[in-house]
Design brief:
Elements lengths: L1 H29 L16 H4 L23 H4 L34 E8 L20 E3 L8 E6 L5 E8 L7 E6 H7 L7 E7 L12
Parallel strand pairs: 1-5, 2-4
Antiparallel strand pairs: 1-6, 2-5, 3-4, 3-6
Length: 215
C-alpha cells in the first residue's frame, strides 16, 4: 500500500514537472520581440544654422536717387533774334598774350580773306584783351595777330559793303574764322541775321576820316 502511494506521487511530480517545462517552452516561443522606441524626426535646422559656415549675403543696396539736373543757362541757350554768330568764350584779358597797343610796321601789303562772326550784348562792357571795355556800339574788332589800335577795312563778300574798324581784342578763338566784329560793324556790313559770312580784310586809309572803298 505504501509503495503504491510513493509510485503515484512520483508520477504526479513527473507530470507536474513536464507541465511546467512545457509551459516555459511555450512562453519562450510566443514571447513578442520588443520593438525599439521610434526615434522622433529631427526638427529642421533654423535658417541661421542652415547657413552657418557661409558668408552672409549683403542686403541689396537701395538705388541712389538721381541727381537733380541743373537748370539750363538761359543766356547760353537763348538765341538772340538777330542770330548773333557766337564767338568762342573769351578768356580774361590778363590771361591772353599781350600785343602792342599802337600799330607797328608797314601794313600796306596786308590782306586776308576768311570768315567773320560778330559779338554783341553778351559781351558788352566786358574787358577786352587790350584792357578797354567792349562796346558793341563802337566800330571795333578782334584779330589774332594785328597790333591793338590797328585800323583795317572789312568788306563783306555777301553784301559788298565795307566798314573801317579798330582792333582792340584778341580772337576769334574758333577755327575757320579770321575776325570777330562788333555789333555796330556787323550791322554796317549788313551781316546781322546772316551768321558767319566771308569777308576780306585790307589796310585802312591813312586818313581816319577817309572811308573804306565800298562804304
Amino acid at each position: 500500500m505504501h509503495r503504491a502511494a510513493s509510485a503515484e506521487s512520483l508520477r504526479h511530480r513527473a507530470g507536474l514537472g513536464a507541465f511546467v517545462l512545457c509551459a516555459m517552452l511555450t512562453a519562450c516561443a510566443v514571447a513578442p520581440t520588443p520593438v525599439p522606441d521610434a526615434v522622433p524626426p529631427s526638427a529642421p535646422a533654423p535658417p541661421e544654422a542652415a547657413g552657418e559656415g557661409r558668408a552672409a549675403k549683403p542686403a541689396p543696396r537701395a538705388p541712389r536717387p538721381a541727381a537733380p539736373r541743373a537748370p539750363p543757362d538761359k543766356e547760353k541757350d537763348s538765341t538772340p533774334p538777330e542770330r548773333e554768330a557766337p564767338p568762342s568764350e573769351r578768356a580774361p584779358a590778363d590771361e591772353r598774350p599781350g600785343a602792342a597797343r599802337d600799330p607797328e610796321g608797314d601794313l600796306s601789303d596786308f590782306g586776308e580773306e576768311g570768315m567773320a562772326s560778330w559779338y554783341g550784348a553778351r559781351f558788352h562792357s566786358r574787358r577786352t584783351a587790350s584792357g578797354e571795355r567792349f562796346d558793341m556800339n563802337d566800330f571795333t574788332a578782334a584779330h589774332r595777330t594785328l597790333p591793338f589800335g590797328t585800323r583795317v577795312c572789312v568788306r563783306s563778300l555777301v553784301t559788298g559793303r565795307s566798314v573801317q574798324v579798330r582792333i582792340n581784342d584778341r580772337g576769334p578763338h574758333s577755327p575757320g574764322r579770321i575776325v570777330d566784329l562788333s555789333r555796330a560793324a556787323a550791322q554796317s556790313l549788313g551781316l546781322l541775321g546772316l551768321g558767319i559770312k566771308p569777308v576780306v580784310l585790307s589796310p585802312a586809309p591813312s586818313d581816319p576820316d577817309e572811308p573804306c572803298p565800298g562804304s
